[in-house]
Amino acid sequence: MAQDGGIGRSYPLDPLRGRDDRGPIFPVGDVDERLAVHDQVFGVITDDGTPVAFAVDAAIATLTGGGDVELNGVTVRLDGGGLRATDAAGNEIEGHQSFWFAWSQFMDDTLLWTPAQ
After folding, report:
1. Cα 16 from Cα 19, distance rounded (Å)
2. What domain range includes position 67?
């Protein structure tokens, strides 16, 4: 651990320097091909246990453009630089942002929002 707390240090945006450009550098099992492995998703679990994921870049672009982002009773809105979700009653739902390959490995029956929906 840096004694100075890392102040003044600059970290690269690509710390792996391209080593994972063609996918994760470790085995991840069967990959759900609806999105690229490194696409970011914002995932939630609804009250009935249904996993729902939203492609982050597409959701932000849609919301910024004045559109709505909703799937299976879950509505997503902008919050700071990220996303926040609510259920049909307007109650906030806890969410998690991750790489698609990671979310889809644990939530293989995920409903996936895309802008075409």
Report:
1. 5
2. 48-113
